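Hey, resending since the last one bounced:
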Amino acid sequence: MQTDLAEGVATQLDFGGPGFGGLLRLRLIGTYVLRQSREQLGDVVEFAGGIGPDSPLAGIRRARANLSLTWERERLSLTGQVRFIGAAQLVNDWTSKDVDGNRVPAVACLDLRASYRLANHLELYRAGDNLLNQDPPVLPGTADQGQNVYYFTATRGDLHDLVGLPYRVGARIRF
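The structure tokens again:
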């Protein structure tokens, strides 16, 4: 029998009011994983914060946060956002005897968005993510990680943007 357990804290703080001739809104959304474990046949594996390919289970980073500031005036909206992903380890149980550097650094990305409402039902927008072109961390591992080495990716796409500087331009139509 297998039992999975995840515990954490999530928070959201919002503040808004007039500013710079329009409306300013500040939003902070954050999570912190206290525990992420799996018990199977009496063995318990704690894997929160262990994100490397050699980790017995693929964990997630403990801390994540998004801080955004939006300014709106009439039909125009501008948003700047910082996405923060906290530090982690390759494998939680490793020490200096196992690896020289077990720490995976924190990452922060800057995103910008703009939109203009042409009519009540039509809005044009542009968005750019990771404007400072922050590279995701490379996660070193052993030669095969128990899988086919030809399909190994040194960065986890479920935790990080793998595209350097994506942007979007489009229109939203409301019916």
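The mean pLDDT is 88.

Sorry for the duplicate.
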